[in-house]
Amino acid sequence: MNAFRDNRLSRTHTSHHQGFFRASLVDSSAYLLKLHGDYKDARILNTEAELSGYPSQYDALLDRIMDEYGLIVCGWSGEWDHALRSAIKRTPSRRYPMYWAARGAPGIGAAELIEQRRAQVLDINGADNFFEGIDQRVQSGSSPASSNAAT
């Protein structure tokens, strides 16, 4: 959230109990979706039962996001959220890339999704450094390949 504020980005920030399926994906420069809620809210979805399936509105939104936008996965094992795994697996389109940023080798659940979606695995040393690096490249207009080029 601080990155949005610090960079003065317009954004849509929504979570499951706020009716996020009514939010527009295209009316802001960034869309932050807290699918399970926020850790500060007692209504957070966290148990295996809560993560086993979503209402149809959630699935429709996830299907749209997976079809119309690229996806960066960071800090997720790919194991316990069965409904999110299903959303990723059922997306037929691969027109936008998927990146899986991980510390170390991805586990079995992640590896299955990575293979199925043909995601590019990125070995990172932490989420903060990873996203700060993306921000710097976006701000400078450079690609990941050019930032690693020998001079």
Gist of the model:
Helix content is 36%, strand content 15%. The chain has six helices and five strands.
Key structural traits:
151 residues; single chain; two-stranded parallel ribbon; three-stranded parallel beta sheet; alpha/beta
- How far is the N terminus from the C terminus? 35 Å
Structural classification: alpha/beta
Rg on CA atoms, Å: 16 Å
**Individual helix count:** 6
| Strand element count | 5
Mean pLDDT: 77
Q: How much strand?
A: 15-25%
Helical percent range? 25-40%
Q: Which strand order does the major sheet show?
A: 3-4-5
Indicate the low-confidence ranges by residue numbers.
8-15, 146-151
Shape: globular
Task: Tell me the major beta sheet.
Answer: 3 strands, parallel
Q: Spell the H/E element sequence.
A: HEEHEHEHEHH
Characterise the protein shown here.
The protein is of the alpha/beta class and 151 residues long. The chain has a domain at 70-146. Helix content is 36%, strand content 15%. The protein has 6 helices and 5 strands; from the N terminus they run αββαβαβαβαα. It has a 3-stranded parallel beta sheet, covered by helices on one side. A two-stranded parallel ribbon has the order 1-2. Helix 2 (56-68) crosses helix 3.
